[in-house]
Amino acid sequence: MIVVNLDVMMAKRKISSNDLAEKIEITPANLSILKTGKAKAIRFSTLEKLCAALKCQPGDILEFVDEENTDKEKE
Which domain holds residue 22? Predict the structure, then answer.
């Protein structure tokens, strides 16, 4: 499963959703969908703009979590 840590990076950079949405030229509603992890996909161009605006790497925003191993650890 891919986890979106966009809210973490935004907090680290002290930038609001509205400011970031304006900077990367997407609607606040679409940014919210990304932040909450409800997006099914993200364009590389959007990811590139996010990384440029937040001065980070794609791996700072997106994280792979192995659900299978996580479930076993809970048992």
Answer: 2-74
Domain count, the chain: 1
- Our CA angle for 36, 7, 26, nearest 5°, is 70
Provide the CATH number for the domain around residue 55: 1.10.260.40
What is the pLDDT tens value at each position of the chain, 75 positions in all?
A: 999 999 999 999 999 999 999 999 999 999 999 999 999 999 999 999 999 999 999 999 999 999 877 655 555
